[in-house]
Each structure stands twice: as structure tokens, then as C-alpha cells.
Amino acid sequence: MSSSTEPRRVTIHDVARSAGVSRQTVSRALNDKAEIDGSTKQRVLDAARELGYRPSRFARGLVRPETTTIGLVVPDLLNPFFTEVAAGALAAARARGRHVVVYDTAGNPEQELATLRVLGAQVDAVVGYFSRPEADLDRFTPGIPVVLIGREPHTPRFSGIAIDGEDGVREAVAHLVARGHRRIGMLDHDGGPEAGVRQRWFRRAAAECGVAVHPGWITRAPQTVDGGGAALAGLLAAHPDVTAVFAFNDVMAIGALREARRFGLRVPADLAVIGFDGLALGTLVEPELSSVALDTRAVGALAVEQAARLVTGADPLEPGQLIVRAALHLRESA
Asked: What's the pTM?
């Protein structure tokens, strides 16, 4: 039988909904914690039995908080952004005696499913970056917490780490305008048919500064060094009057720096370049890269902390605590 016709497994969220309690209360009841009253505990146990719920390893008492294992899924460990996020997750886990296993899906949606099939039976929680629909993630992670990074969850039992870079992008565009730039382009990634959130931030920031963005000033390419170089080359070939660019990420921006040298342009005198992410790698190039910077390690650490709280039944972090904001870090390229 294909996965699309498989009966959906009962999850801890289903038990919580049936019993009229939270996921944390279900976890406490299944682990025989003393902090809930007897009638609530019995209601949870009855709901679990009626629904045929099969508890996770933790709920069966086979996992202690200090042995919690979390699966971290990233699309590309060769991209230093995801390496930094993973480093933050691993450091946070070590500090609390937890374990993190890292899986690289190579940006392949089918590999995501293959990874989830493995993780669903081997870990106590899953965190990371996914392109698959939430229905797929829900089906292959029955009964365990899921924390999405950089993506707003809509499935009730999922949690999410939000990335808010709008103020940082606004700072970046305002800085460029204050330096006299009026023809500002964007090197966006080609991950989908529609403009992504960073392009929307860029367009709003330009409009707030009274700067028009010509449709041809936004080019799209793979989010790699070569992609950034190719995007800048195409942009300057068509619009040589562009004097500044904002890149989707630092890796693309570094590619743009390399391509600017090939064009014989001085950065920032002839062309200003600003990236997004704030990677340590940006300090190793010349000129050093200005960037709308995130605390990448905080992203990984927050994801691990939220997952561990959900596994153990502790109070989860509130949505306002699950936001990582970005700010402009000026160096030499803008």
C-alpha cells in the first residue's frame, strides 16, 4: 500500500485533543508524574487506550531527559549557514547532556522523506528545515515533537523558530540610500516561482526610502557562490547603472564580490554589496562583507531547547521567545 493511503498513526496531539488537555499533560500522565490529579490522568489514559495510541520511547519511560536524542535535519552542510546552525544545536545539546544527530538531505524532497522514515523510529524529536508539506512531516513523525526552523507551522502539534530580518533589511537599504545609492538591485535565490520573504522585505524597505526598484534589478540564481556571481554578472550586463546590491545570503554576496572584481569594479566605491546571515566567513573575504546578521548559533540552540522541552513535558518556550532577529553589521563592502 502506498504511503498516501496508509492509515494515519495516532499521535500525542490526538490524545491531547480527545482528552481536552495539553500535550504536556498527556506526557505527564503517561509518565505517571505526580503534578496532575488522578481524574485527569485517568481521562488521558482512557483516551490513549481508545485511540490505540502507541507512546514514544520517552512516554514508555525508556528515555530520561539526559538521554534525549534529537534529529536535526538540514538541506546542505556544505553551506556554512547550516553548519553554523548545526554547531549551535550541538553546543546547546552538549551543555544539557542531550544528543543531536545531524542529517543532510542535499536539498532533495525525496531524501527528506527517507530521512523522516529513519528518524521517526530512532529519535525523540525532530528539528530542522523541510520543504515537504506538513501532512508528510506529520505522517512520518507520529507521536514525537517537531520543530520547524524558518517556517511557520500550521499543524497544531508542531512548533517553529521564526527568522525576522525585516528590520535588518530596512537598515541595510536605508544605509545604502544614505550613501547616495538609488539604483539598488537584489540577488535573490531561485528556490520557487514566487518572490520569497527576503525579497518582500527588500521591496518594502526600498519603498519606505522612496526608491523605486526596476523589475530587472532583481535577479534569481542558486544560493551558492557561483550563483551569486552569475546573478551579478547578468544584472550588470543588463543594467550597468546599478550601484549597489543586496544578496539573499552571504554566500551569494561573496560570489558577487568575486564577480565585481572580474568586472573591474571597486567595492564599495563602484558597487556596494550587502549580504544576509552574518556568517563568520564574511570576515575572511576582501573587502570584509557587510551583512544583515543573524545569531546563527542561537537558531540551532533554540530549536534544540524547544524540542527537549516538548519531549520532557516541560513548559515550552512561548512564540515570542522563538524569534531570532537580524540586524545590519557594517564592515567594508558597503
From this structure: 0.78
